[in-house]
User: Fold these one by one.
Assistant:
Number 1:
Amino acid sequence: MSTFWGSLAEAASLILAWDPALVEIIGLSLRVTLTAVVFGCLIGLPLGAVAGAFRFPGRPVLIVALNALMGLPPVVIGLLVYLSLSSSGPLGPLQLLYTPTAMIIAQTVLVTPIIAALTRQVVEDLHGEYAEQFASLGVGRVDRMTALLWDARYSLLTVVLAGFGRAVAEVGAVIIVGGNINHVTRVMTTAIALETSKGNLELALALGMVLLVLAFAVNAAVMALRASAVRAAYA
Amino acid sequence: MLRLVLSSLVLSACMAVSAHAEDRFIILQSTTSTQNSGLFDHLLPKFQDATGIAVRVVAVGTGQAIRNAANGDGDVLLVHAKSAEERFVAEGHGIARHNVMYNDFVIVGPPDDPAGGTAVNDATLAFEKIAEARVPFVSRGDDSGTHKAELRLWQAAGIDAVSASGTWYRETGSGMGATLNIGIGMGAYVMTDRATWIAFGNKGDHRILLEGDARLFNQYGIIAVNPARHPSVKAGDAQAFVDWILSSEGQAGIAAYTVDGQQLFFPNAE
Amino acid sequence: MRDLAESMSDLNTTAEPVMSAHGLSYGTGRETHLGPLDLAIRAGRSTVIMGANGAGKSVLIRLLHGLLTPTRGQILWHGAALKAGARKRQAMVFQRPVLLRRSVLGNLRFALRVRGVRKGDRVAREQAALDAAKLSHAKDRPARRLSIGEQQRLAVARALSTSPEVLFLDEPTASLDPASTLAIEAQIAEAKAAGVTIVLVTHDAGQARRVGDDVIFLDAGRVAEQGRASDVLTAPQSPEAQAWLSGDLRLAASGTTGL
């Protein structure tokens, strides 16, 4: 238990000291994950909306696939992306391996099914409410999709945060495609793995606590944003 | 407000993609034990100062490092598994193999030494005692240089430890650090390289119980990846690094690296 | 049971039906929920569809509006077979107001945009709808935060803003208090005065009396009776209508069951 309190103290001092190495790592974690979440939304939100609002052949298969892919292990994604980006792989000429871009690609692959699958459920539930009125008004396909996505925006915010949480906490994908290179591709989770492998457990745990604080901060910021938007709607 | 957040997100995305665009760098595929010892943090800046070439280290298990290099995903390979290295060159992935440095392996264990009498210089004797007493022994079990060296010792002692896997012989399939964490947690014996042990932060009460046997010698080799086989390799800069590390400057740098006053690696390039 | 021809001659009018149904039937699986039945909706008048719960009123109105496809029979729109495009000349209001999570104005704008109303025309119609619903003061408020009476007024105004020929309403005031009910009925009356054909499903005989010109009385998926509202409601001829109306609390209280 002394490890725990020691780590808590170390985490606090790391944060307060604004340790430059730590700041760099946090910065990269946020940039990689946030970018991946943005791309994940660009693909996943429309995909989920289409699957939720429309009927088409193969729809049940798509839904099962999306739901199943939510459980894809990050390390497997890391392997697949590594094999694709490797110099001997199909995308080798791009020379993207061991760069933050590779990490973004891997995390986008991780996050997109989660966003798509959950969006699909949210939109499908909502669509039930609106189906008859939309049919009556003659709402076209694109309008239906965008109207449902906008209408579900608060639920979708939680979906996006779920994607963020999954990505910021994973290590399997980013460590294989990024290589955990100091000052280049080292993020919070890979740093924690490194310190653990060195036996520096207190530091590893302290970094873990900092990661938790980070996740809290992001979620709190999003909720504050939402609250101010709701307040503005009342004015 | 929303636009401010959105635009800063987009800006971050652009920054992430173009982050750390250094002018010249090579990728060095090496092992976690070498990385964790701190040698690279000490040595590589010297090379960068001398040549302006940054060295980006991808530290993974030995097998993975060799495989990555064989895929052309590295410019230089530095591991400690001589026969695998020689095979790497024979298969055309590397130009040539050179000795760089050596250190040694040690056996660490709980202070009360339950197997009895391991505080000797004879590794095979120690292994026999451990197997006889059926005291827990944690192995890396991951085909790394360390693991292969360990298996050679069991073979020399005439003991088939792997068949006892899951009982007193535990295979973690993990790197040195994780294996040490597990072994110390179990009060077991572990074979580790000295460099990792000295730098390790979670020793608990464990101490070195066996050292000095000639068979615990651990040789490191460096290989430049073959540009004829993998055209994307930065052949010129990779060779510059190999040449530098084998030069008197590089070798002195290796010898100068100490932790707690102890030298961890001994240069032995020809 | 009166057939279509009798009803038409009784009404003594030359008004052409804007919609009519012939041999209309709807079922799922082995069950027939509705029909076969024949009916006519006359232009510019307000037709009330009544009956007990489960009689098929909701199914019928959805068939007419094209939200359900008949299993048998035909629906005619201006004398021709009903096609998907006809729905653009119609609008519907449901029992619970279906509004998007955006402002009052946003909801109006959405409907008008979907119906392809041009921007210049749109602004005028939005204002007209707000005035008709008496919601100008709340145009930027989230629509879902209005009281349910106000939400339904908005839903009716939204439907009318698209200038439909026929306005369908499926029990629009079932969840509303008397004041809101009268407000909705006023909107309906205004629409009818402007020439919109009204088709209203209700289980409230008082509302049928206030709002309806013609009544179609359904029982167990068949037309039990149809004719002028004043006739059917005061002197129902069919046993089903008589039985149902005699059980109506308001009519019983005012003692005008006419049995």
Note: Chains C and B do not touch (no CB pair under 8 Å).
Number 2:
Amino acid sequence: MKGDMYLAWSTDEQIRSKGASGGAVTALLKFALERKIVDAVLAVRKRDGNRYDGVVSLISNPDEVITCAGTLHVAPVNVAKEIREYLNGAQDLKVAVTCKPCDCRAIIELAKRRQINTENLLLIGLNCTGTLMPGVARRMISEAYQVNPEDVVGEELDSKKLVITLADGSKKERDLKELEEQGYGRRENCRRCAFNIPRMADLACGKWGTKGQQATFIEVCSEKGSNLMEEALEAGALHAEPPDQEALKEREQEDQEAVELAQTWQEKDLDVLRWLPYEDRLQYWLRYLDRCIKCFGCRDVCPICYCQDCYLEPSRDLVQAGETPPHIMFPLIRLAHVADSCVNCGQCQDVCPMEIPLTRLYQMVNRELTGVFDYVPGMDIADDPPLTTITEEEAHIENVDAFKSDAASR
Amino acid sequence: MTSIEHVPTICPYCGCGCGIYLVVKDGELVGMEPWKGHPVCEGKNCQKGRNAHACSTSDQRLVRPLVKRDGVFAETSWDAALSVIADKLGSTASDEVGFINSAKCTNEDLYVIQKFVRVVKKTNNMDNASRFCHSTSVPALLSTVGSGVMPTSTISIEQADCIFVAGPNLQETYPIIARRIIRAKRKGAKVIVADPRRTITARNLADLYLQIYPATDNALVNGMMKLILDEGLEDKGFIEERTKGFEDLKSYLQSLDLREIERITEIPLDVIKEAALMYGKAEKACILYNAGIAQHGAGIENIRALVDLALMTGNYGRPGTGVNPLRGHANGEGFGDMGPLPVFYPGFQKVNEETARRFEDLWGVKDLPSTPGMTYMDMVGKCRVLYIVGANPMSAAPDTTSVRQALKSKDFLVVQDIFMTETAKMADIVLPAATSVEKDGTMTGVDRRVQRLYKAVAPPGDARPDWDIFCELGKRMGFEAAFGFQSPADIFEEIRKCVPQYKGITYERLKNPSGIQWPCPTEDHPGTEVMFVGKFPTADGLAQFQVAEYTPPLEVPDEEYPYIFTNGRVIFHFHSGTMTRRTGRLNNELPHGFAEINPEDAQALSIQDGDQVRLTSRRGTIETVARVTEDIRKGLIFVPWHFSECAPNVLTGPCAGPPSKMPEFKFCAVKVEKVS
């Protein structure tokens, strides 16, 4: 049942050796396919065996699940968007999806907007302390680790260090803080992200709390997740034991440290902007936004954006067509549309050819709105986004009813 | 069961060489996703890259061979179309046939095309739009540094600490290179932008912006060099060890009057000096140029002056240095490498007896042509039979009115393309070709990076890849063995044998997303990021300084045609617009052309923003909409060249003489009127 915790590992020798932390996630995915609980699995696979080239991969043959085994920290793929765009929002396909916290949150935001049918999804959440851009990772590994990036077979990342494993089994570690001060390390949005354990998924899986054992710590977060765990255990696809107090404490502590690190980065990146005088604040953003070439990359990859007929398109006549940089309304409309629901997935900044720190803008505003509305996006399908909904209480405030007849007739 | 595949490919637009993932769902092309592991773009694309797949699925694609009967096109079979073409080609004398090809083709396509022309038609009459882009670069760079390539990689531009953007509006035309400059600036690099238009590039990237008088670039650069010498900032060691001819240049520069340069360029002397110091003091200085420098009557002199500047300051042979010609096409380097040109066999092997004999041996054929063929405009003017692949001279060539007359007068015109272009409309036979997402192959971008394209989907209808069409024609015309290629992989294996620079490159090695930068002599060679390390590819290994004297443009403004006319590109479109105007998300942004005009000029002519204006040169007239802007110099008019209904090349015309024969696209004289 919800709240149950396990230390689990696969009973299959091959899966245990290929998968991370005892291969429990791979075993669960395979089991879900075999039992036809789902029609397909959506997971990240190394394309051509290249760990810097992860792609979202749809698998229907249980024996192929193992091709996605193992962790990949250098594959910031856009899971939610691909489900919406290429799988018709899972309206007609049952899919088990491996997802980072931001992926889960984006999926939940899209479900609120009826773009994804979560009834058909089984969200296998993966703990996450951040991902790296492939280019940065390659440079970091050759410059800071003095290792050929092609020789790396694994990474381990926590709030203190980044450890790489080489083909010969040897390991090299570097201090995460030092790496990031040198401009290496995680994506900017990931550094500031305080969501490490995906409790909004059906299962939250990770290595925290395993005390070095070859096992996965699994927290059951929903009825659906509970059923899958129980069936998999009963069928012998997994072995599990309950975590002891020490394990729980370890997991709690790791999470706490990661959250604190995120807060440090938030202070560093966002709080400084608050202390700037208004004029400088505007200049700070204009300096970046003036570079915009209107490629629509940020809009195209945003998992929250879904309108068929977007306000920013030239046909809507709101932003003058054919101009670079576009009118300031272009970034501002985007901001207004997603700020309350931004899950800080970082996709917009990843694809911006002009290196505009968009996540800094969105997260900064989102943080303010979270305080105002007491609303955290991507946690629960039942919570409606505050900027597009009206509460019962708000509907009865005098003089602000936009739907009053005199307002409508103007 | 639904299948989703991410197929890697290279963006088919400019020469940056950005990677993209094509998403294929159940055999259909349904979208693109960023390819974050691609080293050139790292997941970042401009709007063209983001929509690179869109025109492939357009309902305007050519899907059947078409034959014109009584002025009207009718569908026909491949068999019928190719047999007519084979007959016509077979019965026309070699010197009366010409072939125009395109850098939208893959290396494999181009290799087969040139082989066909040489083996089957025994002529070197073939050329492509590189004639219009870099026919000045080739002689200028060969005579100075020995090779016309980009010597650094686009990625290492990031390492430069001064970047001299000599003309290109990078943020619109090469956004992914502009990104490298943004990153270089973050590390402290200084950027100089020279452009008569204050573009988005000048506004965002320039630490020093020079609003130069058009076509006076080499005067500016000569002035900068003189000032660098005055300050003693030249690299004496480099000049001594790696160059020759410096004394001649030095005495020429000493003879120059800086006040005269100030007058010609209309840039204040202290600003020229600031630019000279900024460039001269840099540890690693990088020059980027493109058509704004090259497409002039004095293009060769412009480029030589830039090379002199880089040589004098020792800016060659290290990452992030050099004089770097940009390429407007995805396969902008490859369409030189493969030799579909009148003067080079594959691998830049000069057309002559010796080369012809070598290729006879390689290909097992006889009587290969050993004298240079006709260039682009000569073929358009003189050949009775013309076969055009993926090119659109009706928009891309100078003096459109004359081009139309010339094409009309052809005995037989074949156009092989993906859409019914302005040029295709004039053809006797139109053949439907496959796009870059519908075939396997390789392309070689601006920095010599050879990269793989993977076939994502089948071509629509009966469309076929260019290489396949030419192989079949070759076989039909009696050369079964020479054109027995079964796949692009087969062709690439032969390319490796003929093009020394590609010898060590294999399809297997190209699975690595980085591709391989040529020269790559052996299969264990990593490729070459930086050229000219240690020595130059000249006879004696030394670079040659060349005196580049300023000469005025070929046609200067006068009383009747008082304005200077120039043209270029905007970010939403590409070249003659064949692909981007059929891509909704690009064309909706800018569905029509415009003419930029300075407010003072506009006022003098009673023109307001949005008015219809008429531009007239000695060769023709176009009408478009005025865009009044402070960003353009007084006296200059700019029109983008993507729109055939107001094509700048109706106005352009005068060409340089040999060796470049470059049309002066970037400068001619016009008059401007408001259309009432």
Note: Residues 527 and 593 of chain B are 42 Å apart (CA to CA).
